Amino acid sequence: MVKVDLTGCDSFVGKEQFQAYVEKALAAQVVLEEESGAGNDFLGWQHLPSAIGKDEIADCLGVVDRWLAKDIDLVVVIGIGGSYLGAKAAIEALSHTFANQLGTHGLKVVFAGENLSEDYTAELLDLVKVRNAACVVISKSGTTTEPAVAFRLVKNHLEEAYGKAEARERIVAITDKARGALKSLSNQEGYKTFVIEDNIGGRFSVLTPVGLVPIALAGFDVAAMVKGAKDAEKALGARKADNPAVRYAAMRNLLYDGGRKIELFASFNPKLQYLGEWLKQLFGESEGKDGKGIFPASVIFTTDLHSMGQYIQDGERMLFETVITVENAGREVTIPSDPQDLDGLNYLAGKHVEHCNRMAQLGTKMAHIDGGVPNLDIRVDKLDEYHLGQLFYFFEKVCGISAYVLGVNPFNQPGVEAYKKNMFKLLEKPGY
Ligand code: PA5
C-alpha cells in the first residue's frame, strides 16, 4: 500500500497537535464514507474500483482491438481538466520517455482540446493528416468549448479523409448518459459511447472510461490499475489513526492552519510531471474556494532544484513539500569508471544513477527541513499500472477527507464558471 512518512514534519509540529488533527481527519473520514457531507451526490468514485468488473474492462479493450485491427496508429484524445489530466498523467508515467524519438511502432495517443492555441491546433491537424487516425472525445457536460472546437476540426478531417461511415467507426465519445451537445451529437451520428456517471466529477474520473479508454489505447494494463485502486479502496477504508490517507490529510491541514499555505508536490522522477498536474487540479479545484485552501504547486527534482531550489530553501516560509517517491527504479544504469577521470567522477564509478538520485533526495530533504520546509513523503514500490492505481485512489480519498477538515465542499467548482461567462460574452455566444 501507499506509505506515508511524516517524520520530516517532526521539527515543525507537536505530537499532541498532530493527534488533534488526526481526530479531525477521522471525523471527516466518517462524513465522507457515510456520505453525509456537502457534495454527497458526487461520491461515486469512492466504491468505483470495486464496482469495475470484467465487462467494463472488456468494453474499454474492445475499442483497442477494433482500432488495432484497422491499423490505426494515432488516437487523438480530446478533453480538458478532469477529462484529460488523469489519462495524461498515467500515460506519461508509464511510457518510455523517448518513445516518439525511438520511432516505436504501434498506436500512439496524443491529446487535444485542453487549450485554444491556434498553433497547437494547426500542428495537430498537420499530424492527423499524415497518420491513420481515430479520436476519443471526452466531456462530461458535453458543452465545454475547448474540446468542442478541437472535436469539430478532427471530426471534419476524419469525415473528409475516410468518409462519414468510416469516420463513425473511428470516433468514440465519453460523456453524460443523457445531457449535453456531445451526447445528442453522438446519438445522431451513431458513435460508440461510454457513460460518465452523474455521481462522479471530472477530477475524480480517472478510473472511469475517461481515464481507462485512453490508457488502454496507449497499451497499458488497465485491469492492473483498477486492481491497485481496489486494494487502496479496501485498505483506506480503515477508520484508524494509522490509515495513511487520514494521517496525510491531518498533517496537511495542521500545516495549513499553522501558516503553510502552499503545498509543493515534488518528485525525483520526471515521469511523474503530469501526476503533479493531476494533483494540482484535484486539490486546487476541490479545496480552493470560500476564501480558503492550500495552493498546490509542483516541481520535478533534481531539475527544479536548479530553478526553484533557491526559493524553496530560502524564500518566504509559507511552503511545505510533499514528495512522491518511487522506491525502485524500473531500469538500471551504472556509472562507468574512466582511466583518466578528467571529470573527477570516478568516486561514483560502479554506482547506479538511481543511487545518486536517492542521495540527492536525502540531501534535499535534510536541506529543506533545515531551511524551514516541512517534508511529507508518499511512497510506492514501483512505477507501474498497479501502483499508479493505488496512488490515484489514495489522493482522491485524501482530498475528500482533507477538504472536509478544511470545511469546504470538495466536489463543486463554482469558480471555473467566471472566465467562461466572460469568454462567451466576448465571443458573442447566443444567450450571453
Ligand atoms: O473536475 C472537473 O469537473 C473539471 O475539471 C472538468 O473535468 C473540466 O472542466 C471539463 O469538463 P467536461 O468534462 O464537462 O468537458
Tell me about this structure.
- With 432 residues, the chain is α/β, with parallel strands linked by helices.
- It has helices at residues 15-33, 48-51, 54-69, 85-94, 99-102, 118-129, 145-162, 164-169, 181-189, 209-217, 222-235, 244-257, 273-287, 309-314, 353-370, 385-406, 417-426, and strands spanning 3-5, 74-78, 108-112, 133-139, 171-175, 192-195, 262-267, 295-300, 319-326, 375-380.
- It has two domains: 3-36 and 226-416, Rossmann fold (3-Layer(aba) Sandwich); 48-220, Glucose-6-phosphate isomerase like protein, domain 1 (Rossmann fold).
- Helix content is 48%, strand content 13%.
- The radius of gyration is 23 Å and the shape is globular.
Core attributes:
single chain, 432 residues, alpha/beta, Rossmann fold, five-stranded mixed beta sheet, five-stranded parallel beta sheet, 17 helices, globular, binds 5-phosphoarabinonic acid
